Amino acid sequence: MTAAATQTVFICGSALRGQPDHGNLQDATFVREAKTAARYRLHAVKDGWHPGIYAVATGGMAIPGELYSLTPAQYEHLVATEPPHMYPAEVTLETGETAIAMLYPQALIEEHGWPDISDLGGWAAYKAQTA
User: Is 128 helix (H, G, I), strand (E, B) or coil?
Assistant: First the structure.
């Protein structure tokens, strides 16, 4: 498969290595650890059931995660297994590169008052702290 036929995806939640939904990536190729540019916020949606990330104009942080190279079939499977309201969108990484990530509507997070965990070291660190 050529590089053009794959999709680079930034994972920052329950599909990270060692997290319960990592299998949703199937056999996607791990590329490297990465962080977003400091333009995003991360929340624990539905009391920690899954993460919610969204872009902000000010007050953003770099969110840690992992980059994966997915085939079209792997990408379709990942999108199909995401929780309700999550949607694929481009994010900017701290290197200036872009990748697709699964974002969550900021308005829904604010409506429900789900906790902001942006400064806790990422999703895996948050889950370890709440285990």
Answer: helix
